[in-house]
Design a protein that fits this description.
The chain has 383 residues and is mainly α. It has 16 helices and 2 strands. The longest helix is centred in the N-terminal third of the chain and has 32 residues. It is globular.
């Protein structure tokens, strides 16, 4: 609901694309600052406490962001929401790795992503119609969007209840201490190779993806209801993509599956960039989303398998740092480019960066395979 409505709400308040880009940039600044420290300390806490805390902080941050009209306060509230997002994202992948076997992980990561996109489907569908529903209570359009976003914040708060019900063992503090002691042995070169393509594709995504709702509003004059339906249908395509993803892995391998799906999305981005036929653009929008999001669980799984168990949290933190760090830079510039030159330059630069990222991912790992050792530790071996 926030992905769909927040930018539209800011536009109703009269804010420019460059300011919206600044807000989104500062929201991503918190994960950049906290990613590595969180990766170093997450082993001292239960995932139950981390995920519950993250959910509540995000809900409070987003709620305050729409309750205040002060520009600086909006940016500060976005930063607070980003703190919760950082804790959540650092915790998720290590939680799955700790509570699953090798056999089920590809499906677990994909099913988790599918569940997330399923929730986004419901949120987009409901969110698109909520502003109109609140028109019965107020005729001010920005207040209609505000009440809709507050509803989203309340729903987010409810997700803390299933997290509270998690049953798990207490963290192994001795193992965590050994991890900190042996931190110098961490394979930073490998982690760096995993992060560089993520950073580059993140820069490309940040230039255009956060503004796709505004793209449909500005270029085609779409209403909030229409955009909500489009984003809801997008979640269906993304869910289908994540379920198809594991079927590619036995044939192509994790690394090649990521590269192929990422490159396959580029023709559809070109269509979004240059076509002005609404039905054609909608089809391209849906296919691009399905292909790009198909590879997210696969790339996360590949990274988690590629590093040692003790490096899961710090690797996940560095990947998050790469992604959100790229958005801190590119979202703000994306808003400026769109405000000054329209959407075409942002699309073109994003396409180039997607190609570069795909090439580097293949170049770094073309001769590498992930292999399970007898003692169930992971290493990279030359193919």
């Amino acid at each position: 609901m926030f992905m769909l409505l927040l930018n539209l709400y800011f536009k109703e308040l009269g804010f420019s694309e460059s300011y919206i880009g600044t807000v989104l940039s500062r929201t991503n600044l918190a994960p950049v600052i906290l990613a590595l420290p969180l990766g170093l300390v997450v082993g001292r806490f239960t995932f139950k406490s981390l995920l519950t805390f993250a959910t509540l902080v995000m809900a409070v941050g987003y709620a305050f962001q729409v309750l205040t009209g002060n520009r600086d306060a909006i940016i500060l509230a976005g930063f607070v929401a980003g703190v919760g997002s950082a804790v959540f994202r650092v915790s998720a992948a290590p939680f799955f790795m700790r509570h699953s076997s090798e056999k089920e992980r590809t499906y677990l990561f994909s099913m988790n992503f599918a569940a997330s996109t399923g929730g986004a489907f419901v949120g987009s569908l409901i969110g698109g119609f909520l502003p109109a529903a609140f028109s019965y209570f107020t005729q001010l359009s920005h207040e209609q969007f505000r009440y809709a976003l507050l509803t989203g914040s309340i729903i987010m708060t409810l997700s803390a209840f299933p997290f509270v019900s998690i049953v798990e063992e207490k963290p192994d503090l001795k193992a965590h201490s050994r991890f900190l002691t042996n931190l110098r042995k961490t394979d930073w070169r490998l982690i760096g190779k995993l992060c560089v393509p993520t950073f580059i594709v993140g820069v490309g995504a940040g230039l255009i993806i956060p503004f796709l709702n505004l793209y449909f509003k500005d270029v085609f004059g779409a209403s909030a209801e229409t955009i909500g339906i489009l984003f809801a249908v997008l979640q269906c395509f993304m869910t289908a993509g994540t379920l198809v993803g594991p079927l590619l892995v036995p044939r192509l391998g994790l690394m090649r599956s990521v590269v192929v799906t990422q490159l396959a999305s580029i023709p559809f981005m070109l269509t979004l960039c240059f076509s002005r036929s609404f039905p054609v653009v909608v089809g391209a929008f849906l296919m691009r989303g399905a292909l790009m999001n198909m590879n997210q669980p696969m790339s996360t799984h590949f990274a988690m398998e590629a590093v040692r168990k003790e490096e899961h949290a710090v690797t996940n933190s560095m990947l998050m740092l790469s992604w959100t760090g790229s958005w801190v830079l590119s979202v703000q510039w994306g808003g400026i480019l769109i405000e000054r030159y329209s959407y075409v330059p942002s699309f073109v630069v994003a396409i180039v960066l997607y190609v570069v990222s795909s090439f580097l991912y293949y170049y770094f790992f073309r001769n590498v395979e992930v292999e399970r050792l007898p003692e169930h530790e992971l290493e990279l071996k030359e193919a």
